[in-house]
Write a structure and sequence with these properties.
0% strand, mainly alpha, globular, 260 residues
């Protein structure tokens, strides 16, 4: 069988797959990195270290990279789901879980950080962006350009709005979830639609490219380490909701043992 036909056959197999291990492994890597980051943050929160997670580039750039990887994987997943023919019913069932968990994050963060609680963090942003990604998943290569424009719009808006009478409107909580701001709001997690929708759009576009040009990359068997990451990636939402409870619980228990 010619190489092109073999690739087409592999692509057809992808169409009936429920999960793609390579994407799950990449998502699992993001979860592990996030866990290390949050553990370091928790050490600082409980006074074991002195770090500036809000201004030190060492930490702020890591946060940007982690969120980017997480949203890129979400875009990859949406692209694969559309290719597999996932219906809107299944999409909305998953979406309700994401939106519900976002509300739980808001409630929990308000209890811990009432002045800087999370009102539009990564799950809130995902709930909005997933709908947009689903509606535009069929736009093909245009998503590369749209992603670039979405990212650029954040910086363009900051330049245009700076000193403008409209700046307070877009900086206020009613509209700052869009991301077209001149100053960052005081909140523990902030993932607005722009520029982050651009990263998710790139994930959807990359999914289409992989299915057309490199389908064998998606079917390649994983070694033991990546396979473990793939297992974690399949349970990313549950892990995300529980990992901080475990980390903080362990540090609280350690602190009490030290006080005995």
């Amino acid at each position: 069988m010619p190489a092109a036909q073999r690739i087409d056959a592999i692509g057809a197999r992808i169409g009936v797959m429920q999960r793609v291990d390579a994407i799950d492994a990449l998502r699992g890597l993001a979860m592990v990195w996030m866990t290390v980051f949050h553990f370091c943050f928790d050490l600082q929160h409980f006074g074991y270290t002195q770090q500036d997670f809000y201004a030190d580039p060492f930490w702020t750039w890591q946060r940007t990279a982690i969120v980017s990887l997480f949203l890129f994987c979400a875009g990859l997943g949406q692209g694969m789901a559309v290719r597999q023919g996932q219906g809107w019913g299944r999409f909305w069932r998953r979406w309700r879980l994401v939106a519900g968990c976002a509300l739980l994050v808001t409630a929990a963060s308000y209890g811990m950080f009432p002045r800087s609680f999370v009102y539009f963090g990564v799950l809130h942003g995902m709930a909005v962006m997933l709908i947009v990604a689903r509606l535009t998943a069929g736009w093909g290569r245009w998503l590369w350009l749209l992603g670039a424009l979405a990212i650029a719009s954040k910086f363009m808006a900051a330049h245009v709005l700076s000193g403008s009478s409209l700046a307070p409107l877009f900086d206020g909580r009613a509209l700052n979830w869009l991301g077209w701001i001149t100053r960052k709001p005081f909140t523990e997690d902030y993932v607005p639609v722009f520029p982050w929708l651009g990263v998710m759009w790139w994930g959807v576009a990359a999914s289409g490219w992989l299915q057309r040009r490199r389908p064998r990359w998606l079917l390649r068997p994983l070694a033991a380490g990546p396979a473990a990451l793939a297992l974690l990636g399949r349970w990313s939402l549950s892990y995300y909701m529980l990992h901080q409870l475990v980390l903080m619980g362990l540090l609280i228990a350690y602190g009490r043992l030290q006080a005995v």
